[in-house]
Amino acid sequence: MSSSLLAFSTLLGLAAAVAKSCPASSPISCQTTGTIQNTCCTEVQGQVLQVQFWDSSPATGPANSWTIHGLWPDNCDGTYEATCDSSRAYTDIGCILEDKGHGDILTYMETYWKDYQGDDESFWEHEWSKHGTCYSTLNPSCYTNYSKEDELVDFLNTTITLFKSLPTYQWLANAGITPSSSKTYTNAQITTALKNKFGATPILSCTSGKLNQIEYAYNVRGSVANGKFIAVEPTGTSGNCPKTGIQYVPKDLSTTPKANEGSCS
Fold this sequence. Notes:
By secondary structure, this protein is of the alpha+beta class. The chain has 6 helices and 8 strands. A hairpin with a 6-residue loop joins strand 6 and strand 7.
């Protein structure tokens, strides 16, 4: 599906149902000037980046899919705030999801939101505390009949919902770009294949010439919980992959770490 305009009017019936609704005329993030009047309906850190990993060794996730890194707020210029509210640095996220009746989210995360060392829970906690707590529209004050951790569920659900709408592996494969131990690709080939589907330029990141991360940028009208996500050109960075000779290495699934298994009391 095209992600140029993605509306989250319903988010699988999750905690978003209690997030305060925003007027259709709410300003689009990164397009306002001066002080934002309603920080529950316009993101203070206005650009939102859905970030994906390609881990080949150690390998994470299925052989035919990228995995989730996170959902990062950005100040519309490449800078960002981090770890904004230590009082909401929730732990035992898997147990929170189970307790709130969202085992479906947890099951999806256990497949597609993976840590390269096998410590998925710590990875989720890090992404939430560093990035999730910084969304102004996910502040508890933005909720009606707020229950603790509602905003965490919305953050996780929005992250995976966006990820599902961005099938990077399939988009690249459709353009003839598939993992290979010998073939290389140009930056333009990869960028064009993804831009044609997403509607805006992705940010490509490489390590030692190997493609391992992609960021898709959005502006948002309304809350990150249930607003409209608009694909936009990224600001502040253009990635670090070379123009030519980019390797897209197959995943070596024999190197996949065993996930640390926790238990809920």
